[in-house]
Design a protein that fits this description.
Radius of gyration: 23 Å
Oligomer: single chain
Structural class: alpha+beta
Helix content: 10-25%
Distance between the termini: 31 Å
Strand order of the largest sheet: 1-2-3-4-5-16-6
Largest sheet: 7 strands, mixed
Order of helices and strands: EHHEEEHEEEEHEEEEEHEEEHEEEEHHEH
Amino acid sequence: MTTELRVLRPDDWDKWYGNLELAFGGVAESPEERSLWSDLTEHDRFIGAWDGDDCVGTTGAFTFRVTVPGGAAVQAAGVTMVSVASTHRRRGVLRSMMRRQLDDVRSWGEPLAVLTASEPVIYGRFGYGVATHQLRAEIDTSRVRLSVPEGTDDVRLRLVAPDAPAVRDACEAVYARQVAARPGMLERRPDWERLPLLDPESDRKGTSPLQCVLAERDGEVVGYVRYFIKPEWDSAGPAGTIELRDLEALDPAAYAALWQHLFGIDLTSTVKTHSRPVDDAWQHLVSDARRCGLSLRDSLHVRLVDVGAALEARTYQAPVDVVFEVEDAFCPWNEGRWRLTGDAKGASCARTADAPDLTLSVRELGSAYLGGVSLASLAAAGRVRELRQGALAEASLGFSSVVAPWLPHGF
């Protein structure tokens, strides 16, 4: 078998995307979804594997800027739409695409690659580490109560059409003000504002159309929530479910007002969340966290494409001066010893011949990079080795983040 890797041509997009759909179960997406992803595709950053006229593999890399600890937005390749045809599995197609893609990302000067994984087991061997998690919940609002902060009643709530241009722009402005405050969040590039509004009727599965409520104070939009309502009834009466899509707010009172609204919607008794920060503040407003059905799932996987540039791009919670011995068989330009010196004001990271303080692979650096996974916990699992006493505690504290990193939406 001979396969050819080539940059995606616009004329090949339909066949390329059809192969992706087939690899993910063969169910065609709605015209609305297909149109959005077609418009978002950056053809010169997407790759197809071809066996003659047949597309047998797909992958791409969106142009992103992701927030890192310290608030800077760092260029990152958003790896997406990875698939291999069932007829061509275990023949090196995926490996060849990952090889080409990471070489490309390096040539573009982007220090990070990030992805979400349908099967997380696949990507560790290419140097990706799980860096963020998403909190899921199923809150019994018939038995759980909220205790809200002062000023909540001063917030005006208004039900609006989610796709009205003025509403969309107001929500995007709130989102944009949040991005620098939390590692893992993505700056929204043109057309990406369409993603949270995507609402094909074929995907609703018994839920309402997308609903949107704005939180306002003194005429200014200070928060928003988008959600679906699924009407349900049991033997005791109404038992509907609120399916939360997204919620952002600029202050605690607006945040609490939006959650209070969700808890009080008539004919419902459950609020379901699928992707919230692990430190989401509503957990401190509820009367009984045990009745909230909490669970965690991996979210953003991070790969350092350029170790030195990536570690220099973020700041550190406490001073660090540590030499890492980095293993990276897939991207050998990263291998070797790096001295990281940094604090809350900035950092430098350069090659060194000094004795190493910690040894680890690039996968562990990716996991720890956004501050949501501690180097100490990785060391406890045998994934990081301390060679200088005290270096592990120093690095773990330095790499930590004040708030949990979080990916607000998939790609």
